[in-house]
Each structure stands twice: as C-alpha cells, then as structure tokens.
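Shipment paperwork, digital attachment
Item: protein structure file
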Amino acid sequence: MQRTGTPDPIVVVRAHSDDDLRAMIHVRAAADAHSPRPRLDNLRHNLAGNPGLSYLVAHAQDAPVGCGFVDVSHASVARAHVLVTPQARRQGVGTALVAGVSEHARTAGLAELEGPIRADDEGSLQYFQRRGFTKSGGEEAVVLDLAEIGDLTTEPPAGLRIVSRTEAPDTVEGMYEVAREAEPDIPGGAPVRPYEVWRAAEIERPSLEPELTFIALAGDEVVGYAILDSLRGEPWHRLTAVKRAWRGHGIATALKRAQMQAAKKKGYARLVTTNEERNRPIRSINRALGYRPEPSLSTIVMRGPLLLAEKDR
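Attachment content:
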C-alpha cells in the first residue's frame, strides 16, 4: 500500500487491495449507519473505471478509523468526501484524511475541494466552516413506499416509447448524448464526464440492473433515460435525464413510473433518491409521484480550499 505523508499514530493509505476496500466498508457502516454500505464489487469497478479516483483509509493502532475518496477527473474542483468512526473523532483522523485528499487534488493542479456532509452532522459542518468551506448546494433525500402505489401502467407521451435497457442494449451512446446536455444543467452540476468514465459509472457498474434502467425513444433517437442502482438490496435513483428540446412533455414522469412499476414487480419495498435542492422540476415530479422527505439521508454540499501542504503549515 502507498503511504501518504501523514505521521503516526494515524496512518493514511491509498486503497488498492480488497482488504483496503473492506476496511472502507467497515468505516462506512460505523460512521454512516443510515446510508447503504458500499459493495466491494462496486468499489473495485469504480477504481478500474475512473483513473482520476482515489480511495483513502486511515488507520490508528492498525484498526481502520476513517476513509475518504477524491476524484480529480473534473476540471474545476476535486470532488471529495471523508468519514471518521464515532469513537475516533476529535483525534486528528479527519484532518489527516483532508490532508490526504488535498494532496491528491494539489498534484492534479486543483485548488478546491467539494463534497457532501450529512445535513444533521453539525460537528462536521462546523469543522469545515472553520477551515473556510461554504455551502455550495444541498441534496434533499426522499423515499417512496412501493406498497402504497397501485398499478402504474400508462401510455407513454405521444410519439415515444419507454423501454428498458434490457430491451434496447444498443442505446448507450444515445444515452450519453442525453447526459451531455442534462448533467451540466443540474444546479451545482459538473461538466459532463468523458465517455469512458460516464459509461463505467452509469452502465457497467456491477449494482446497475439493466431491467431497471429505462430509456425514452423518439423513433431511434434517445431523448431521455432514468437509472436505478441496487445498493444492498435497496434501489436508489441515479440521474433522470431528458434532452433540452424534449423537456416539459412528461418524459421524466413516464420514466420514473416505469422504474416504480419494475421495482415493485421485483419485490423491492421502497425507492430512494436525492435531489439537488435547487432542482425544482425533479423535486416537483417526485412529490407528485408520492415521494416523501427522508432527512436522515439528506446532505449539504460544501466547497473550500485545500489543506495547506505540510511544509507550508
């Protein structure tokens, strides 16, 4: 394992092996019990599919006590996140991890970090505020109890077909063209990822079930899509995307209804999603479909400067 410059007794390592990744899963389960635990196959896949992504694990006395990631594939800011187990807080673990992700960002020529903090984690919010971070956005979590919905069979918008990716496996490049328009339009969104990185995350990720990804077709043109990610037996929505020229025609609602019906048919109990708080159109759609707030899964996105390099402190 590759060590960063963090002194003992806290040692931060860059995760490479399955043991490192299992240590991350252990920390996530202890530090964020409300969220689904990562899947080992997903973590392996994420590293293989995105050369700009690094995972870090912090150890104290040979036990994993913190973890984090940093993604430098975006041009303007390093996307990052750190977690510390409850019993190891206020012992320098978080600072060691922030130093680690800062060093990766600095090496990539980036000057800022941006990432989510659970909305009810007042200690972490204050920690980053003291270091010059400010709120740049927020993700409101909502859930849908599938037992409460009836038959969702409806006709798609006129002139369109709604099909699963199982039925239309050759639509991936068309989906990417939708993403190229939709991803930058999300409030707080980033420029669209390179095709290979996008495909690895949105198509080839092990927890993605093709029968739960739905595509809106106008003839042979992909005009929208919606993806569900089956995390530890509970589906979470990823992006619901529609081309700009086709928005306002009920396509996003039709895609979500298809997902809801398919998930219920497969025996899932609920669906979970998070939406940027400024993304009023999708939040309005979710409310109309019966999704209800789940504050324990909501996050605040913070953005701020890198931690100074050790030689500059």
